[in-house]
Design a protein that fits this description.
The protein is α/β, with parallel strands linked by helices and 459 residues long. It is built from 13 helices and 22 strands. It has three domains: 250 residues, Vaccinia Virus protein VP39 (Rossmann fold), CATH 3.40.50.150; 65 residues, no CATH class; 134 residues, Trna Endonuclease, Chain: A, domain 1, CATH 3.40.1350. A nine-stranded mixed β-sheet has the order 14-6-7-5-2-15-16-1-17, sandwiched between helices. It has a five-stranded mixed β-sheet with strand order 18-19-20-21-22, with helices on both faces. Strands 9-10-12-11 form a four-stranded antiparallel β-sheet.
Length: 459
């Protein structure tokens, strides 16, 4: 497909699964994603000058849930990637082994190119949490292609001074050079090098030597171990305070290696927009997707501040929820997902017969990295908080049903999202807290839209 037929310079707000499905087959040259890691970390971030407090959750119940959640999104990624395209999946130790198996299945093991190990930390401190295991200092970035023919420009570094002194020990009027043995060569190439004065025949060698000059040498080829790119420090340099922000140099390296100018780059979990900023600066076309309306606004500001772009002229943001009128058009399950994700929770995978609970929030302070009996793969996540969502005005029967669901789940705290709440519903919420030590926190849709739903005040 012609790149001109794809709408680029667009940020889509919403679940990437929906927006990926709307893209045609074989249309993207390079896809990079840095999705939720399943790493049991709760992020509280202050954004820019407004000090807007946000909670970021990247937690799923277990490995199977995480892989199942990623699979349909990867199906779409494989579909929209060009036959000559490349794909980079950024993850850490929590889920990397599971995702490598899934990616091998989807792309084909023969299309696996590299596992890049990016050292994102030097030290690990001395906290008790890491006292009995080796520190986790690196991320993995899996590099796959869709076929055998793909763009790749291998990054190279200049030779070190010590290397130059030890290898390029000869010089003439042309400059410094080293001598390389010519065991095989064509007659035409040999005669050309002779005319250029590049051939040296040593008395003690049956093979001729070729002069390789320093100024035409390619440098040291980069391996899959990347230790030269420092991680983001939120209060210094390019740091925006975004919890999983990656350095611009990291994305520049990937984009330079696996694309050409005017190619289309897509990031389906765009976060604060590092990928699209790097793509813009390198003369590539781009598409960004993120489920967080706040993240989409941060991307817009960054494109303006860093790249000098103007929203509505040079790029656009699509599908930002703005009003209840827009939200009430959502199908019920999509509305549930919107509300739970906006609170920083994880929607339940089971939508029918969910026993009155639409999703959960997992407070970070309730998570132990110890693997206790009965806990999931990533630690003790038993202290989850149920969430119920209604796309209408919640009444007393809705609250009664949620009380039952909370008790069945052996919890004493839950969040309830609705358009509004009747007086009977509010009285029942007050009663169960006063008489039964059961706390239900009500949030209206408008509170979420106005970003006044502060779950961290209660967990």
């Amino acid at each position: 497909m012609n790149n001109n037929e794809i709408k680029t310079s667009v940020i889509y707000c919403g679940d990437c699964l929906k927006h990926l499905k709307n893209l045609p087959d074989d249309c993207i040259d390079l896809i990079y994603i840095d999705p939720p890691f399943n790493s049991n970390r709760n992020y509280e971030v202050f954004w820019g000058d407004t000090k807007e407090k946000r909670a970021f959750e990247d937690r799923f119940g277990d490995a199977e849930h995480y892989v199942n959640w990623m699979t349909p999104r990867l199906v779409q990624i494989v579909r929209i990637l060009k036959l000559t395209g490349s794909f980079y999946y950024h993850c850490d130790w929590h889920a990397s082994h599971y995702m490598k198996i899934k990616l091998d299945q989807m792309f084909g093991f023969s299309n696996f190119r590299s596992e890049i190990m990016w050292e994102r930390a030097i030290g690990t401190g001395s906290s008790k949490s890491i006292a009995k295991h080796f520190g986790h200092n690196n991320d993995s970035i899996f590099f796959f292609t869709k076929g055998k023919k793909y763009t790749f420009h291998r990054p190279r570094f200049p030779y070190s001074e010590d290397y130059i002194k030890s290898k390029f020990v000869y010089s003439d009027e042309r400059g410094q050079y080293r001598l390389n043995v010519l065991a095989t060569y064509s007659k035409e190439r040999f005669e050309q090098w002779q005319k250029e004065g590049r051939i040296v025949q040593k008395p003690d060698s049956k093979y001729p030597y070729y002069k390789q000059y320093l100024d035409e040498s390619p440098g040291v080829a980069l391996s899959n171990i990347w230790t030269d790119i420092e991680p983001i420090i939120s209060n210094k340099g390019e740091g925006l305070g975004y919890p999983t922000q990656k350095p611009i140099k990291l994305l520049e390296r990937i984009i330079k290696a696996s694309s050409n100018p005017d190619d289309i780059i897509l990031d389906a979990f765009c976060g604060c927009g590092t990928t699209i900023v790097a793509a813009q600066q390198l003369g590539r076309k781009w598409i960004g997707i993120d489920i967080s309306p706040t993240a989409c606004r941060v991307m817009a500001k960054r494109l303006k501040d860093v790249c000098g772009l103007k929203e509505g002229v040079d790029f656009v943001i699509r599908d930002l929820p703005k009003t209840w009128e827009e939200l009430k058009k959502y199908p019920p399950f999509e509305f549930q997902n919107w509300a739970i994700n906006a609170l920083g929770g994880i929607p339940s995978a089971k939508k029918v017969g969910d026993m009155g609970i639409d999703g959960y929030i997992y407070p970070a302070e309730d998570v132990s990295m110890a693997k206790n009996e009965g806990s999931d793969l990533f630690g003790e996540l038993d202290k989850r908080i149920p969430v119920q969502v209604k796309q209408h005005r919640a009444g007393r029967p809705d609250i009664d049903s949620f009380e039952t669901a909370i008790r069945r789940d052996k919890r004493n705290l839950g969040f309830f999202v609705a358009l509004t709440f009747t007086k009977d519903a509010t009285r029942e919420i007050d009663r169960v807290k006063r008489e039964e030590d059961l706390t239900i926190i009500p949030f209206t849709v408008q509170q979420i839209l106005d970003e006044e739903a502060k779950i961290n005040d209660f967990v």
